[in-house]
Amino acid sequence: MSSLVKEQLLEDMIISDPRLLSDDWMLIGRQEDTSFGGRIDLLAITPDGSLVLIELKRDKTPREIVAQALDYASWVAKLEPEKIVGIFHRFSNGKNLAAEFEHRFGAPLDEESLNEKHQIIIVAAELDDSSERIVNYLSEREIPINVLCFQVFSLGGDQLLSRTWLRDPTETQVNASTSPSEPGEPWNGEFYCSFGQGPDRSWEDAVEFGFICAGGARWYSRTLGLLDVDSRVWVKIPGSGFVGVGRVIGQVQSASTFKLETPAGELPVLDVAKRAGYHKASESDPDACEYFVRIKWLETVPIGKAIQEVGLFGNQNTVCKPTKAKWRSTVERLKLAFPKYNE
Questions:
Q1: What is the pLDDT of residues 27-64, one digit of tens each?
Q2: Which residues contact 303 (CB under 8 A, 6 or more apart)?
Protein backbone atom coordinates (compact mmCIF):
# COMPACT_ATOMS: atom_id res chain seq x y z
CA MET A 1 0.00 0.00 0.00
CA SER A 2 1.23 3.52 -0.77
CA SER A 3 0.10 7.10 -0.22
CA LEU A 4 -0.63 9.80 -2.73
CA VAL A 5 2.06 12.40 -3.14
CA LYS A 6 -0.45 15.24 -3.15
CA GLU A 7 -4.17 15.96 -3.18
CA GLN A 8 -3.88 17.22 -6.76
CA LEU A 9 -3.14 13.67 -7.89
CA LEU A 10 -6.22 12.36 -6.09
CA GLU A 11 -8.30 15.11 -7.68
CA ASP A 12 -6.92 14.31 -11.13
CA MET A 13 -7.74 10.61 -10.65
CA ILE A 14 -11.34 11.44 -9.78
CA ILE A 15 -11.71 13.89 -12.67
CA SER A 16 -10.50 11.22 -15.09
CA ASP A 17 -12.83 8.59 -13.58
CA PRO A 18 -15.70 10.11 -11.52
CA ARG A 19 -17.00 6.60 -10.79
CA LEU A 20 -14.32 6.42 -8.10
CA LEU A 21 -16.73 8.56 -6.09
CA SER A 22 -20.12 7.39 -7.34
CA ASP A 23 -21.83 6.09 -10.45
CA ASP A 24 -24.78 8.29 -9.48
CA TRP A 25 -23.19 11.74 -9.70
CA MET A 26 -22.07 14.08 -12.47
CA LEU A 27 -19.13 16.37 -11.72
CA ILE A 28 -19.93 20.02 -12.46
CA GLY A 29 -17.20 22.05 -10.75
CA ARG A 30 -13.58 22.02 -9.61
CA GLN A 31 -11.58 24.39 -7.38
CA GLU A 32 -14.38 26.93 -7.06
CA ASP A 33 -13.73 29.98 -4.89
CA THR A 34 -16.32 30.66 -2.21
CA SER A 35 -17.39 34.18 -1.29
CA PHE A 36 -15.32 34.06 1.92
CA GLY A 37 -11.89 33.01 0.72
CA GLY A 38 -12.16 29.22 0.69
CA ARG A 39 -11.97 26.95 -2.31
CA ILE A 40 -14.16 23.91 -2.92
CA ASP A 41 -12.30 20.93 -4.35
CA LEU A 42 -15.12 19.33 -6.36
CA LEU A 43 -18.83 19.88 -6.91
CA ALA A 44 -21.24 17.31 -8.34
CA ILE A 45 -24.95 17.02 -9.10
CA THR A 46 -27.34 14.08 -8.54
CA PRO A 47 -30.30 12.95 -10.67
CA ASP A 48 -32.74 14.99 -8.56
CA GLY A 49 -30.78 18.24 -8.97
CA SER A 50 -29.18 18.13 -5.51
CA LEU A 51 -25.57 19.25 -5.23
CA VAL A 52 -22.69 17.30 -3.68
CA LEU A 53 -19.84 19.20 -2.04
CA ILE A 54 -16.66 17.10 -2.13
CA GLU A 55 -13.59 17.89 -0.03
CA LEU A 56 -10.39 15.91 -0.68
CA LYS A 57 -7.63 15.11 1.82
CA ARG A 58 -4.87 12.62 1.00
CA ASP A 59 -3.96 11.90 4.65
CA LYS A 60 -5.81 11.43 7.93
CA THR A 61 -8.56 14.01 8.29
CA PRO A 62 -8.41 16.29 11.35
CA ARG A 63 -11.69 17.52 12.76
CA GLU A 64 -10.99 21.01 11.40
CA ILE A 65 -11.68 19.63 7.92
CA VAL A 66 -15.22 18.70 8.98
CA ALA A 67 -15.77 22.27 10.15
CA GLN A 68 -14.32 23.56 6.90
CA ALA A 69 -16.66 21.35 4.87
CA LEU A 70 -19.66 22.59 6.86
CA ASP A 71 -18.51 26.16 6.27
CA TYR A 72 -18.26 25.56 2.52
CA ALA A 73 -21.69 23.89 2.57
CA SER A 74 -23.21 27.13 3.85
CA TRP A 75 -21.99 28.72 0.61
CA VAL A 76 -23.19 25.85 -1.61
CA ALA A 77 -26.66 26.00 -0.04
CA LYS A 78 -27.13 29.56 -1.32
CA LEU A 79 -26.01 28.98 -4.92
CA GLU A 80 -28.62 30.21 -7.39
CA PRO A 81 -29.25 28.41 -10.71
CA GLU A 82 -27.38 30.99 -12.79
CA LYS A 83 -24.32 30.64 -10.52
CA ILE A 84 -24.42 26.85 -10.84
CA VAL A 85 -24.68 27.13 -14.63
CA GLY A 86 -21.63 29.41 -14.58
CA ILE A 87 -19.65 26.93 -12.46
CA PHE A 88 -20.37 24.14 -14.93
CA HIS A 89 -19.62 26.38 -17.90
CA ARG A 90 -16.09 26.97 -16.54
CA PHE A 91 -15.57 23.34 -15.57
CA SER A 92 -16.73 21.89 -18.90
CA ASN A 93 -15.18 24.45 -21.24
CA GLY A 94 -18.47 25.98 -22.25
CA LYS A 95 -20.95 23.07 -22.26
CA ASN A 96 -24.63 23.53 -21.44
CA LEU A 97 -25.61 22.20 -18.00
CA ALA A 98 -29.23 21.38 -18.90
CA ALA A 99 -28.21 19.45 -22.03
CA GLU A 100 -25.44 17.52 -20.26
CA PHE A 101 -27.71 16.73 -17.30
CA GLU A 102 -30.40 15.27 -19.57
CA HIS A 103 -27.81 13.30 -21.53
CA ARG A 104 -26.31 11.88 -18.32
CA PHE A 105 -29.50 11.12 -16.38
CA GLY A 106 -32.12 10.76 -19.11
CA ALA A 107 -34.42 13.40 -17.63
CA PRO A 108 -34.67 17.20 -17.94
CA LEU A 109 -33.10 19.40 -15.30
CA ASP A 110 -35.86 21.03 -13.26
CA GLU A 111 -34.68 24.50 -12.29
CA GLU A 112 -37.14 24.56 -9.39
CA SER A 113 -35.47 21.54 -7.76
CA LEU A 114 -31.89 22.54 -8.65
CA ASN A 115 -29.86 22.79 -5.41
CA GLU A 116 -32.95 22.33 -3.28
CA LYS A 117 -30.80 19.95 -1.20
CA HIS A 118 -27.12 19.12 -0.92
CA GLN A 119 -24.73 16.51 0.49
CA ILE A 120 -21.31 16.95 2.11
CA ILE A 121 -18.70 14.31 1.23
CA ILE A 122 -15.19 14.23 2.69
CA VAL A 123 -12.70 12.03 0.84
CA ALA A 124 -9.66 11.06 2.91
CA ALA A 125 -7.08 8.33 3.53
CA GLU A 126 -8.43 7.82 7.04
CA LEU A 127 -10.46 9.57 9.68
CA ASP A 128 -9.33 10.52 13.17
CA ASP A 129 -11.54 9.52 16.09
CA SER A 130 -12.81 13.05 16.71
CA SER A 131 -13.85 13.57 13.07
CA GLU A 132 -15.58 10.20 12.99
CA ARG A 133 -17.59 11.05 16.11
CA ILE A 134 -18.61 14.41 14.64
CA VAL A 135 -19.68 12.94 11.29
CA ASN A 136 -21.64 10.15 12.98
CA TYR A 137 -23.32 12.65 15.30
CA LEU A 138 -24.39 14.87 12.40
CA SER A 139 -25.55 11.92 10.27
CA GLU A 140 -27.65 10.49 13.08
CA ARG A 141 -29.39 13.87 13.23
CA GLU A 142 -30.17 13.68 9.50
CA ILE A 143 -27.43 16.03 8.28
CA PRO A 144 -26.40 14.62 4.85
CA ILE A 145 -22.66 14.19 5.50
CA ASN A 146 -20.45 11.18 4.83
CA VAL A 147 -16.80 10.20 4.49
CA LEU A 148 -15.23 8.14 1.71
CA CYS A 149 -11.99 6.59 2.92
CA PHE A 150 -9.53 5.39 0.32
CA GLN A 151 -6.37 3.34 0.09
CA VAL A 152 -3.82 3.55 -2.70
CA PHE A 153 -2.05 0.47 -4.03
CA SER A 154 0.93 0.50 -6.34
CA LEU A 155 0.88 -1.94 -9.24
CA GLY A 156 3.91 -1.59 -11.43
CA GLY A 157 4.05 2.08 -12.33
CA ASP A 158 0.34 2.65 -11.66
CA GLN A 159 -1.54 3.68 -8.53
CA LEU A 160 -4.90 2.03 -7.88
CA LEU A 161 -7.54 3.47 -5.55
CA SER A 162 -9.95 1.46 -3.39
CA ARG A 163 -12.78 3.02 -1.38
CA THR A 164 -14.88 2.42 1.74
CA TRP A 165 -17.77 4.57 2.98
CA LEU A 166 -17.93 5.48 6.67
CA ARG A 167 -21.73 5.31 6.57
CA ASP A 168 -24.14 3.71 4.13
CA PRO A 169 -24.52 6.19 1.23
CA THR A 170 -28.21 5.26 1.16
CA GLU A 171 -28.58 7.02 4.50
CA THR A 172 -26.83 10.13 3.20
CA GLN A 173 -29.05 10.26 0.11
CA VAL A 174 -32.16 9.84 2.23
CA ASN A 175 -31.01 12.54 4.66
CA ALA A 176 -30.47 14.88 1.72
CA SER A 177 -33.90 14.17 0.28
CA THR A 178 -35.81 14.41 3.56
CA SER A 179 -34.03 17.08 5.60
CA PRO A 180 -36.38 20.05 6.08
CA SER A 181 -35.93 22.87 3.57
CA GLU A 182 -38.57 24.99 5.26
CA PRO A 183 -38.13 25.49 9.03
CA GLY A 184 -40.97 24.15 11.11
CA GLU A 185 -42.55 22.06 8.34
CA PRO A 186 -42.99 18.50 9.68
CA TRP A 187 -43.36 15.47 7.45
CA ASN A 188 -47.07 14.63 7.09
CA GLY A 189 -46.57 10.85 7.10
CA GLU A 190 -47.37 10.44 3.39
CA PHE A 191 -44.76 8.94 1.03
CA TYR A 192 -44.11 10.17 -2.48
CA CYS A 193 -43.06 7.81 -5.29
CA SER A 194 -41.69 8.74 -8.71
CA PHE A 195 -42.47 5.88 -11.12
CA GLY A 196 -40.29 5.91 -14.25
CA GLN A 197 -42.72 4.76 -16.90
CA GLY A 198 -40.97 3.74 -20.12
CA PRO A 199 -39.02 0.88 -21.69
CA ASP A 200 -37.70 -0.27 -18.30
CA ARG A 201 -40.99 -0.37 -16.38
CA SER A 202 -44.73 -0.33 -17.06
CA TRP A 203 -47.49 1.36 -15.07
CA GLU A 204 -49.99 -1.14 -16.52
CA ASP A 205 -47.91 -4.00 -15.10
CA ALA A 206 -47.63 -2.21 -11.75
CA VAL A 207 -51.40 -1.83 -11.51
CA GLU A 208 -52.20 -5.34 -12.70
CA PHE A 209 -49.71 -7.14 -10.49
CA GLY A 210 -49.51 -4.76 -7.53
CA PHE A 211 -46.06 -3.27 -7.21
CA ILE A 212 -43.82 -0.22 -7.58
CA CYS A 213 -40.23 -0.58 -8.72
CA ALA A 214 -37.00 1.16 -9.65
CA GLY A 215 -33.54 0.22 -10.88
CA GLY A 216 -30.72 0.87 -13.30
CA ALA A 217 -28.50 2.30 -10.53
CA ARG A 218 -28.53 2.23 -6.74
CA TRP A 219 -29.40 5.92 -6.58
CA TYR A 220 -32.81 5.10 -8.05
CA SER A 221 -33.54 1.86 -6.19
CA ARG A 222 -32.12 2.43 -2.71
CA THR A 223 -34.87 4.80 -1.48
CA LEU A 224 -37.47 2.04 -1.90
CA GLY A 225 -36.08 0.85 1.43
CA LEU A 226 -37.72 3.84 3.14
CA LEU A 227 -41.10 2.17 2.81
CA ASP A 228 -42.42 0.13 5.71
CA VAL A 229 -45.33 -2.27 5.55
CA ASP A 230 -48.63 -0.33 5.75
CA SER A 231 -47.02 2.90 4.52
CA ARG A 232 -49.28 4.91 2.22
CA VAL A 233 -47.62 6.02 -0.98
CA TRP A 234 -48.76 8.44 -3.69
CA VAL A 235 -47.36 7.62 -7.13
CA LYS A 236 -46.44 10.13 -9.81
CA ILE A 237 -45.18 9.46 -13.33
CA PRO A 238 -42.81 12.33 -14.23
CA GLY A 239 -44.17 14.34 -17.13
CA SER A 240 -47.66 12.85 -16.78
CA GLY A 241 -48.91 13.33 -13.22
CA PHE A 242 -50.20 11.40 -10.22
CA VAL A 243 -51.66 8.03 -11.16
CA GLY A 244 -52.40 6.19 -7.94
CA VAL A 245 -52.28 5.65 -4.21
CA GLY A 246 -51.66 2.40 -2.35
CA ARG A 247 -50.52 0.66 0.81
CA VAL A 248 -47.20 -1.16 1.10
CA ILE A 249 -47.70 -4.87 1.85
CA GLY A 250 -44.15 -6.21 1.49
CA GLN A 251 -40.47 -5.43 1.85
CA VAL A 252 -38.25 -4.38 -1.04
CA GLN A 253 -36.95 -7.31 -3.11
CA SER A 254 -34.67 -7.65 -6.12
CA ALA A 255 -35.97 -8.88 -9.47
CA SER A 256 -34.30 -12.25 -8.90
CA THR A 257 -36.36 -12.94 -5.75
CA PHE A 258 -39.63 -11.05 -6.33
CA LYS A 259 -42.50 -13.35 -7.38
CA LEU A 260 -46.07 -12.73 -8.52
CA GLU A 261 -49.21 -14.75 -7.92
CA THR A 262 -50.56 -16.24 -11.15
CA PRO A 263 -53.11 -18.96 -12.01
CA ALA A 264 -50.09 -21.23 -12.42
CA GLY A 265 -48.79 -20.37 -8.95
CA GLU A 266 -45.98 -18.04 -7.89
CA LEU A 267 -43.68 -17.10 -10.76
CA PRO A 268 -40.67 -14.75 -11.05
CA VAL A 269 -41.68 -11.19 -11.88
CA LEU A 270 -39.49 -11.11 -14.98
CA ASP A 271 -41.38 -14.14 -16.35
CA VAL A 272 -44.78 -12.54 -15.80
CA ALA A 273 -44.51 -8.76 -16.22
CA LYS A 274 -43.82 -8.47 -19.94
CA ARG A 275 -44.80 -4.92 -20.86
CA ALA A 276 -41.31 -3.56 -20.03
CA GLY A 277 -37.72 -4.75 -19.63
CA TYR A 278 -37.12 -4.18 -15.87
CA HIS A 279 -33.35 -4.24 -16.47
CA LYS A 280 -33.49 -7.98 -17.10
CA ALA A 281 -29.94 -7.98 -18.48
CA SER A 282 -28.74 -6.76 -15.06
CA GLU A 283 -30.79 -9.23 -13.00
CA SER A 284 -27.70 -10.59 -11.24
CA ASP A 285 -26.10 -7.18 -10.63
CA PRO A 286 -27.21 -5.87 -7.19
CA ASP A 287 -26.39 -2.28 -8.18
CA ALA A 288 -28.12 -2.16 -11.57
CA CYS A 289 -31.00 -4.66 -11.24
CA GLU A 290 -34.64 -3.70 -10.73
CA TYR A 291 -36.08 -3.74 -7.20
CA PHE A 292 -39.76 -4.19 -6.34
CA VAL A 293 -42.13 -3.39 -3.47
CA ARG A 294 -45.52 -5.08 -3.29
CA ILE A 295 -48.48 -2.66 -3.15
CA LYS A 296 -52.18 -3.00 -2.42
CA TRP A 297 -53.67 -0.37 -4.69
CA LEU A 298 -56.40 1.75 -3.14
CA GLU A 299 -57.13 3.66 -6.33
CA THR A 300 -55.37 4.11 -9.68
CA VAL A 301 -56.00 5.83 -13.01
CA PRO A 302 -54.53 5.24 -16.49
CA ILE A 303 -51.67 7.48 -17.54
CA GLY A 304 -54.01 9.40 -19.84
CA LYS A 305 -56.07 10.48 -16.81
CA ALA A 306 -53.14 11.35 -14.53
CA ILE A 307 -53.63 14.26 -12.13
CA GLN A 308 -51.33 17.03 -13.32
CA GLU A 309 -51.83 20.54 -12.02
CA VAL A 310 -49.66 23.59 -11.51
CA GLY A 311 -48.23 23.62 -8.00
CA LEU A 312 -48.32 19.88 -7.29
CA PHE A 313 -45.21 18.37 -5.73
CA GLY A 314 -42.59 16.55 -7.79
CA ASN A 315 -39.20 14.98 -7.10
CA GLN A 316 -36.75 12.71 -8.97
CA ASN A 317 -36.08 10.44 -5.98
CA THR A 318 -37.97 7.18 -6.38
CA VAL A 319 -39.32 7.46 -2.83
CA CYS A 320 -39.09 10.36 -0.40
CA LYS A 321 -40.67 11.83 2.73
CA PRO A 322 -41.18 15.44 1.63
CA THR A 323 -41.03 18.20 4.20
CA LYS A 324 -42.30 21.06 2.05
CA ALA A 325 -45.60 22.86 2.48
CA LYS A 326 -46.26 22.06 -1.19
CA TRP A 327 -46.36 18.34 -0.33
CA ARG A 328 -49.00 18.84 2.36
CA SER A 329 -51.21 20.82 -0.02
CA THR A 330 -50.56 18.28 -2.79
CA VAL A 331 -51.79 15.40 -0.64
CA GLU A 332 -54.91 17.32 0.33
CA ARG A 333 -55.66 17.88 -3.37
CA LEU A 334 -54.93 14.23 -4.21
CA LYS A 335 -57.31 12.99 -1.51
CA LEU A 336 -60.09 14.70 -3.46
CA ALA A 337 -58.94 13.19 -6.74
CA PHE A 338 -58.54 9.68 -5.23
CA PRO A 339 -61.43 9.42 -2.73
CA LYS A 340 -60.69 5.74 -2.01
CA TYR A 341 -57.27 6.67 -0.56
CA ASN A 342 -58.15 5.46 2.94
CA GLU A 343 -59.88 2.18 2.22
A1: 999 999 998 888 999 999 999 899 999 998 866 666 78
A2: 197, 203, 237, 240, 243
| pLDDT in the model for residue 6 | 55
List, in order of start, the domains of the chain with CATH numbers. Answer: 7-178 (3.40.1350.10), 191-337 (3.10.590)
Contact predicate 247/189, CB 8 Å: no
Three-state secondary structure of the chain: CECCCCHHHHHHHHHHCHHHCCCCCEEEEEEEECCCCCEEEEEEECCCCCEEEEEEEEEEECHHHHHHHHHHHHHHCCCCHHHHHHHHHHHCCCCCHHHHHHHHHCCCCCCCCCCCCEEEEEEEEEECHHHHHHHHHHHHCCCCEEEEEEEEEEECCEEEEEEEECCCHHHHHHHHHHCCCCCCCCCCCCEEEECCCECCECHHHHHHHCEEEECCCHHHHHHHHHCCCCCEEEEEECCCEEEEEEEECCCCEECCCCEEEECCEEEEHHHHCCCCCCCHHHCCCCCCCCEEEEEEEEEECCHHHCECCCCCCCCCCCEECCCCHHHHHHHHHHHHHCCCCCC
Q: What does the pLDDT look like over 108-130, one tens digit per residue?
A: 888 878 898 899 999 887 788 88
Angle ∠(123,127,132) on CA atoms, nearest 5: 105
> 222-259: per-residue pLDDT in tens?
999 999 999 999 999 998 999 999 999 999 999 999 99
